[in-house]
Design brief:
It is built from twelve helices and eleven strands. It has helices at 18-31, 44-50, 97-110, 121-134, 158-179, 194-203, 219-234, 259-276, 298-301, 306-324, 344-356, 369-376; strands at residues 5-10, 35-38, 60-61, 114-119, 138-142, 181-187, 207-209, 240-245, 289-294, 330-335, 338-343. Strands 3-2-1-4-5-10-11 form a seven-stranded mixed beta sheet, sandwiched between helices. Helix 1 links the parallel strand 1 and strand 2. The radius of gyration is 23 Å and the shape is elongated.
């Protein structure tokens, strides 16, 4: 079998499972007698080669590419690690003519037969444009804790992030119950609410606010939140859990740096308004103790759960199979219980159009079964 030279890079925000993809790609490639070159910090790796900061051979990955002291050595430990050994970037301007020229030159110097690009909607959009201009043979693997890459039901990293949110809500339940508190938990999700919705349901949230259903914190949404909290108090439940995605905007439809803190202030003010308007029932909420927890980058940094390891491994193997079959310009996806692939150009067209329209690339749809699940549990979902 003819040897091939395969490049692999991770781009955009890191997430659990990236190293498991790298591991799977290298192991499968070596069984085919192929060479795999790991590009550090996304497309910046190509620039480094073009600028002669590194020789191409320094990027070669093998089974011995990652070694730890003692008896734990080699490639196989990678599936347990979060982050990415290749490094990643989520900034930079590949449209700068000098930057673009260096990237294209570096790719040519590596003489790759194909490139496996691991990224989310934004980074895949950028890399695809470079690949088109440079006539690269590209295979894309979706990764994002937001789960907002079109056409795939799961992206690598999402399931672990859901687990982190679920565990956080579980842990906060006990301190909330001990002090009769309402805990507001702010989670990631700039445009998509998949993480907040699924983590919130699994973690026992009473209120879940996501951008698709609650684009902004209107008075109607605040009223609904306050009535939900009052209902908890009247049912002798003196604590509660509220999950809000970072992409929900303030009452003026503007982005807040910390939407959880903003929501806390607005609920407090609205409770006071209701009480002074002679809604005496809301006296029960007047002195309500509320605390905010922002999970932040903890959602990205946990070791991948079993499902993300399995998905990452299957995605890596599928990428190698597509290269073997010379089926390029493909996005590896999970659909209907199995790994397959779809047209990358079709995915990028969807992403570009939705970026242009400034809408989520793959939102929580109105018929999502988890929305029905949440409503059936009595969870308040804002405007939805």
């Amino acid at each position: 079998m003819n040897s091939k030279r395969i490049g692999i890079l991770t781009s955009g925000g890191d997430c659990p499972g990236l190293n498991a993809i790298i591991r799977a790609v290298v192991k499968a490639a070596e069984l085919n007698n192929w060479m795999v070159y790991g590009l550090p910090y996304g497309t910046d790796g190509f620039r480094d080669i073009a600028e002669k900061k590194y020789a191409p051979k320094e990027f070669l990955l093998t089974r011995k590419c990652y070694e730890l002291p003692g008896k734990i050595r080699g490639l196989d430990v990678l599936q347990f690690f979060s982050g990415t050994i290749l490094g990643s970037i989520n900034k930079g301007d590949p449209n700068d003519p000098r930057v673009k020229a260096a990237i294209l030159k570096g790719y040519g110097m590596l003489a790759l037969d194909a490139l496996i690009a691991i990224g989310g909607d934004g980074s895949l959009d950028i890399i695809y444009d470079l690949a088109k201009e440079g006539h690269w043979n590209i295979i894309a693997i979706p990764k994002t804790i937001d789960n907002d890459v079109p056409l795939t039901e799961f992206s690598v990293g999402f399931s672990t992030a859901v687990e982190i949110v679920t565990q956080a809500l579980y842990d906060l339940t006990f301190t909330a119950a001990s002090h009769n508190r309402i805990m507001i938990v702010e989670v990631m999700g700039r445009d998509a609410g998949h993480l907040a919705l699924r983590g919130g349901i699994a973690g026992g949230a009473d209120i879940i606010l996501i951008p698709e259903l609650t684009p902004c914190l209107s008075l109607d949404v605040l009223d609904g939140c306050c009535h939900q909290l009052l209902e908890l108090q009247q049912s002798d439940r003196h604590f509660g859990l509220l999950v809000i995605a970072e992409g929900v905007k303030n009452k003026s439809n503007e982005k807040e740096s910390y939407i959880g803190d903003y929501l806390k202030r607005q609920i407090k003010e609205y409770i006071g308004f209701l009480y002074h308007e002679k809604h005496k029932n809301f006296a029960q909420l007047k002195d309500l103790d509320m605390r905010v927890t922002v999970l932040g980058h903890l959602q990205r940094s946990h070791p991948p759960v079993a499902w993300d390891r399995l998905l990452a491994t299957a995605f890596g193997i599928k990428a190698i199979e597509l290269i073997k079959e010379k089926k390029y310009d493909r996005l590896v996806i999970w659909k209907r219980g199995e790994v397959s692939s779809d047209s990358l150009s079709e995915v990028i067209d969807i992403i570009k159009k939705r970026h242009k329209d400034k809408v989520c690339t793959s939102p929580v749809e109105s018929d999502d079964c988890m929305l029905k699940t949440a409503r059936s549990l009595g969870i308040y979902l804002g405007n939805g």
